[in-house]
User: Fold these one by one.
Assistant:
Number 1:
Amino acid sequence: MQNAKAISTPDLDQPPQKKGERRQVHEHVLSRMRRGLMVGAFLPGQVLSLRKLAAGLGTSPMPVREVLSRLIAAGALEETANGSVAPPRLGPDKLEDLFSVREVLEGMAAEMAARKATPALIEELTAINTKLLVAIEKRDISGCLSFNQEFHFTLYRGCGSDVILPLIEALWLQFGPTMYMSLLVPSMPWNAADHGAILDALKKGEHAAVKRGIVHDIRTTKRALLTVLGENGMADLPFAARSDLFGDF
Amino acid sequence: MQNAKAISTPDLDQPPQKKGERRQVHEHVLSRMRRGLMVGAFLPGQVLSLRKLAAGLGTSPMPVREVLSRLIAAGALEETANGSVAPPRLGPDKLEDLFSVREVLEGMAAEMAARKATPALIEELTAINTKLLVAIEKRDISGCLSFNQEFHFTLYRGCGSDVILPLIEALWLQFGPTMYMSLLVPSMPWNAADHGAILDALKKGEHAAVKRGIVHDIRTTKRALLTVLGENGMADLPFAARSDLFGDF
DNA sequence: TGCGCCGATTTGTGATCTCAGTATGTGATC
DNA sequence: GATCACATACTGAGATCACAAATCGGCGCA
């Protein structure tokens, strides 16, 4: 996953079209779909239709097919029996597996990033965290998800390895839909408490503490997720996907 | 990457066609390409043409496009400036990054597998290792690669997590072409010494020792790879890809 | 009222076609 | 003999087409 464009696009939605680089349709589709997966446009298990998706995006099915292939390869989507695709439903044990890998991978990335952290990076992270706190205060689910993701990935990008980053991104895309659904339950707590400790450790140059902070943050999220999904008997929560992003399916 | 079919196919080449499952063309293409990447059909940096690939595989470009998309998402292929694809050229630092992630991920998988290891699994691994030793004795490069891969993945499959396995597979696909090229250098040593220690630790139920064995094995491979590629000044080795698998390009 | 069958519709898959951008290779000219 | 220009061939991207399987709907029968 060394090419950053493989799965992760720098989130350019408006056709920037700078330089000789032609803006490809499938790049646009990819960034839309990736964001959609992270902010609740698709529910776990919700079957996505190729043609309807293409219609919603205003293109032919071709670029969508390319994107779906990539998302399947990343584990962000699963093939159903008849070849359709849907975001994965994560059971307790799979969720446990997923978050164990997150701990290892993101802990590693965080520690590496801490070694190379510049004051500018720390300042950037602090600013993002402030926006996250505001979003939490306002009960802005999409804001929470976006700023939390931005906080983590801004840190991880600092590790300087373009091998580990796409792997982490694949993991996030896998639990994104489940994460969003869980946040629709009012009792689901959002905890950004660890971020403060991470920033402190970053400023003090305590690499191991940064790693511990990230791992603790991941464990907290995992526990909350397991609790909420467990309370609801692992059955699907009776919520609908956001239709303001792609239309209905 | 939870669906095992996402990137990794159970290597079914002959149309098994059992049950109601339709054998899809792109699955066949995917398994061919994956094996090709691991046994030297493509060299690092070698540009692959969509149409020629399709012609070599006897299909239309469509299934190939789908497969290339998935391999790009896995990092097994990179997009060139004009949209073509090629296996990545791995420089020393990227190789270092890649193998660091391997240590963490495969170490984790190995330890988990060790906890669940059954006598049957250990016996299977022993048999594979025997075949590997024969291949080494015969200087059979393809055999070495295949059996070594089979040894590792048979162990990792025992970890019972279908989250971590596709990530490891993606990493192997990334360094596969570079690994093959390095083996063409006569001075490249192949070391399966750690496998014996791993099997011993497995039999004794020493989980940590299994993990240590895997990590040591990975470190040894990394060192050998860096040495061989360094000697040749990181320039491309003047070897050709195997044309007996896909034809020439 | 409940169950089963049949047809219309929608599904993904693969092939084909067009188009624009790029590389190639050959020719003429200096 | 070297270099530049133009024409040809080839590249991937996207749209469209064709087909078969599966799904969903409604109708008819028990």
Number 2:
Amino acid sequence: MITSDRFAELRKLHGPLERDSVVEPAADRLRNLIIEGHLQPGEKVPDDIGKEYLGVARNTQREACRMLVHERLLTQQLNRGFFVRMPTREDVGDVFHVRRLIELQAMRAGFDTAGANRVFEAVEAGEEAKSELDFAGVGTANMRFHRAISALLGSERINTMMSQVLAELRLVFHAMSDAREFYLPYLPRNREIAETLLVKRDAPAAERLLTQYLDDAERQLLDVYPG
Amino acid sequence: MITSDRFAELRKLHGPLERDSVVEPAADRLRNLIIEGHLQPGEKVPDDIGKEYLGVARNTQREACRMLVHERLLTQQLNRGFFVRMPTREDVGDVFHVRRLIELQAMRAGFDTAGANRVFEAVEAGEEAKSELDFAGVGTANMRFHRAISALLGSERINTMMSQVLAELRLVFHAMSDAREFYLPYLPRNREIAETLLVKRDAPAAERLLTQYLDDAERQLLDVYPG
DNA sequence: GATTGTCAAATCGTCCCACAATCCTATACC
DNA sequence: GGTATAGGATTGTGGGACGATTTGACAATC
């Protein structure tokens, strides 16, 4: 259940909302609330977090929610309101389907040093988070790694697709009881993939590694994810 | 410039708006207005088509517009309102980038008879439209063909991505002066691709054909598309 | 004649309130 | 114990208000 205190508290933490347009930043905040798990999958998004946390009117919050519905982070049930999306097992399969399509193809794309750097930065961010036992950070870094990988394709559209798909995947983790350490064993594999592709420049091998990675992650996830 | 008469006229044509939720159907109508070219790229979407054409309040129309911004059909300029998106040349390149990613991969996917049927239905719809000199119909059928192709991948997410990308491509055509007959020469190639893939079952050959198709279409488009 | 400055009208972004439709809950009844 | 029902809460949408911003015209200045 959601209490007003919670949002008053968060609002105090994040400060008031200030920028030119109001809807986008409001949507950003809501998105973060969801991605970081402050709003659990299945949980209702009350109609007036707007006033309490975001400091925007009901209409405005609705616009923001509508955007997040479009991003598959929320669902809307008529006359019942907005809820944090609860991905099904099929959704998980589909997410990995898309990831295979994009990420494996990215292995075959060319790359420049800037792109390679972003990949390695993500790898290192993950390892650093691991050393600090910052599990949320590990998850974020992992997302970043895979976004960096798909960014090698150099398509703005694909980047946003990938961001959305990975955000949706976060919902899956928040819907599981114990997902904290899920990504830990995958960190070394991230590095291996990065080095195979970007240093050794053995794309086919990297593709095989990534295929294994995705297969393993999907299976492991589906093993514990409730229907 | 937009006149009220125009929307009154369209409203009479399309009838009043009726369904459970109101925003989605309103967005659907706006989307059609754009896809069918009644609203030209670059044109402003007045803040109150809502009342005049959609029969919804300003707030509601805003929500609908916001959705279409998310679909890349509209852009929003602060304090100036919503405009039909005007794709750049880079956008065109990126659209084809995504299409290659998806459609070429679809050549390698398996398929069932239902999927194959949808492809051939689209091919035939195109040929029929051609025989009736219905150029708009040819364009629609072509969209349908490529959606059917990418649907072979069997991913809900990819289907919607593809729909969006193709809708965006329509903007490109509406932004050109003379795009009527653009797709005519591509109809036989659609059939050839379909038969190579689904009847002869020569996926590599189909992939080559489709690669050629996409390369040609992109080049031909960029040749005439203004910067 | 071109640039700049000013001002009014139009439009936009947002908030606020109203009200019907719907859902939720708890109480009463069988 | 289960079902019906009434009342309250919440949602979806309409419509208006108001400040902020843009736009376009017109005057002032270089």
Number 3:
Amino acid sequence: MRKPCCDKQDTNKGAWSKQEDEKLINYIRIHGEGCWRTLPQAAGLLRCGKSCRLRWINYLRPDLKRGNFTEDEEDLIIKLHALLGNRWSLIAGRLPGRTDNEVKNYWNSHLRRKLINMGIDPNNHRLITHNHLPRPHDSNSGASIISPASKVPVTDNSNIHPPEKSRGDNDQVSDAASSLEDHQLPDLNLDLTISVSASTVDKVKDDRRKSQKQSNIIEDP
DNA sequence: AACAATGTCAACCGCATATGC
DNA sequence: AGCATATGCGGTTGACATTGT
């Protein structure tokens, strides 16, 4: 049995106080990132290492770009999601100053709905067929039509891929990407070269290759 | 003004993967 | 090679804010 990442009895939970933030910032300023397990004690924080890491990465890092997402960023997230699926850290890696948590939250609260309103299934970026469209008076139509990404997508081929939860495999990626390959959307410009640098596109392609390779290894050991 | 419904986002949890021994 | 531990990731939760009735 795995040991818990920290002694839960002695750790604070919930929102961070200003003092805690300052302690964490000061410690990392002096000692740098890393060694999250020992950091809380060294920094005098009653938090677990994971919590410190999350706080730093998602909120305290000096290079974070806070505030609203620009249209370009929105566009890029949608395109990258079509390519990569729910791999938020990879997507965030292409958006300077944005974190995976931020991108994920923004996707779930804004972009998913935006795509649904455009008649696009946010899970696979296909056009929602007529019988899948939300009913006008259905109050939580979004949730009822589109299942969360981790669950079985409500698509015609949903029974082909079992709702297997395994990291490193490529269900989301291959599903979303393959669906795009044979089902181009007229209003979803997937030419990443327009708003994304060539190196970024190369990196995305490279990641996809790696993912493909990895899933092949898993499927065919 | 009061309450309910809904939206947003920071933080937590559990698992997978990476790394070191 | 196999185990133990640390780190990273994605899904989910819950508190707070906002909007509607």
